[in-house]
Design brief:
Elements (H helix, E strand, L loop, with lengths): L2 H37 L17 H15 L1 H4 L15 H4 L16 E3 L4 E3 L1 H10 L12 H13 L26 H11 L1 H4 L28 H11 L10 H12 L14
């Protein structure tokens, strides 16, 4: 190939070929993940990859920024956050804690069907769900450095996990159904005894170290934590600080009902599709 045709190939055809190859790779990942979803992820048997030093250069810098964004979300993404919560308030240890909705393996689970949205969504849109609901904010710019950094961080934690496989400790551990209807009244007494010392009698917490549980600086009504069963599972597994596992499932349900009974900001209807 002479210099002229070679330059024409590089300028006209190579970008199109590259785009097609990337699209085929994404389609392959989607089909693998979809097959796994059809199986229902019955068994979560893949261990999370071991923690390893970050790579050098710009990739490592982007991954590091992603972790910092998870750890200090309002401080580093304040224009897109409407409260005092960080991602790490629910995704403990910056998304690396087993049973606290860890990030390992997520890169291979998306695109995925999202029941709340009623459609298949990419991982970036799932991240935006957290920003508009748990963070009571707005979506990130899709090609901005913050979204890129968060995707890079999740990919780094997911390295080596086959697409479609589920890592052990994914999500929050489910609780058995409550023995009786969750009681906000019973939860009130428990809250004063087990929670108020850290989160305060008014639920305001002490951000950034202790998250607010209700009020203007807490998650909004569209967040996953606004569901009693989700918060109960988290509380039972991890709370109170220093005494994890000391609450019965029923006590966890009652505490979640008490928190749920307090006001939370409304979800902005503009972002209801997320």
């Amino acid at each position: 190939m002479t210099a002229g045709p070679r330059r024409r190939f590089q300028s006209e055809w190579l970008p199109a070929i590259t785009t097609c190859l990337l699209a085929l790779l994404a389609l392959g990942n989607y089909l693998v993940a979809s097959r796994a979803h059809a199986r229902g992820f019955v068994a979560a048997t893949v261990p999370a990859p071991a923690v390893a030093p970050l790579p050098d250069g710009r990739l490592g810098a982007s991954i590091r920024l992603g972790q910092e964004l998870v750890h200090a979300t309002p401080q580093l993404a304040g224009a897109y956050v409407g409260n005092a919560l960080s991602c790490a308030d629910c995704h403990l240890r910056d998304g690396q804690q087993q049973d606290a909705a860890p990030f390992a393996g997520l890169s291979g689970e998306f695109p995925a069907w999202n029941r709340r949205a009623g459609r298949v969504i990419p991982l970036a849109e799932r991240i935006d769900e957290c920003f508009v609901r748990s963070e009571n904010g707005t979506p990130l710019p899709p090609l901005g450095r913050r979204m890129t950094a968060l995707l890079a961080y999740v990919a780094w934690l997911s390295r080596g996990v086959p697409a479609g496989d589920r890592v052990i400790g994914r999500g929050f551990p489910p609780l058995p159904p409550p023995a009786r209807r969750p009681s906000a009244l019973a939860g009130s007494a428990l809250y004063r005894l087990r929670c108020a010392a850290c989160h305060g009698s008014g639920g305001a917490g002490d951000p950034p170290s202790i998250p607010p549980l209700w009020g203007a600086q807490a998650y909004n009504q569209g967040a996953g934590m606004n569901q009693v069963r989700t918060m109960a599972a988290f509380v039972h597994r991890f709370m109170p600080l220093g005494g994890a596992g000391s609450l019965s499932p029923q006590q966890a349900y009652d505490l979640a009902a008490y928190v749920h009974a307090h006001p939370h900001p409304a979800l902005n209807p503009k972002y209801a599709r997320y």
